[in-house]
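Course assignment 3, question 2. Fill in each field.
Student: A.L.
Task: Predict the tertiary structure for the chain below.
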Amino acid sequence: MQIKNYLVIFRWKNLLMIILVQALLKFVLFQKFELNITLDFIHFLLLALSSVFIAMAGYIINDINDIKADEINKPNKVFVGKQISFKTANNLFLAFNSLGLLIGFYLTIYIHKNSFFIIYIIISLLLYRYSIDLKKRYIVSNLVVSFIVFLSIIIVPIFDIVPATNALNRDAQIVIFKLVFIISIFAFFLTWIREILKDIEDVAGDKKIHSKTIPIVNGIQKSKSVLAILSIITFIGVTYFVYHIYQTNSIASMYLLVCVSLPLLYFAFKIKVAKTKKEFHQLSNLLKAIMLLGILSILMY
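Answer field:
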């Protein structure tokens, strides 16, 4: 099997997004505000690797259990059972999941917060259960993926800022933790919107595996209305955030308004008139771009 096929299985673009947002938080946001931190470069690298390994394991186990739907929705990207055996795929899942959990366990010992290992357990279990049955459940499937994305971002300040917080630096640490929480919420909503949009694209294959996605249960038109409402809610949230930081950072505010808020509003209007799979896919790519631009705004805070 060619390396490029493995990259497709591992969703290398998504993995790069995880690494990018975690690195921007660590090396831009935290350093710019001169926070007290816990993780040195090596241990942050381990945190990023553990996140990537568990994500890779999640993608593999999802492909293993999603072959019937993928044969209809994306027949050219079905590799498990064709170019890679089920045994190899299962072994890769076990290897990457185990590596991610082991590294996570080590990090909790390093920061003296053993209870934080529950975050890794939650992510790993959710990814596994999602691939088995949660992805077929109404609304739950979208929320699970969105929550995992939320955790992949908020885990950075949890492991880096929280252990270094004390009575002397608490106020400054909390301000930045709240900022990262807002960024995580933004990623949660954009992921939620995109997951519903992907369900619209994948209706044919999802019906074959008896999924209860929003488009299957409520129909395409109502799903498009849900997407419009969620995107407007996100637009309002981002715009309020822009207004909140305007007096302290006009450049960041203008950037967020032009690159995030207005594209979200554009999406809300376009989704109502979109009809073809090509149009839905283009809007999905627009959401990817909005998320990337939103993450890059960290450079301007």
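Instructor remarks: The two ends are 44 Å apart (CA to CA). The mean pLDDT is 87.
Grade: pending
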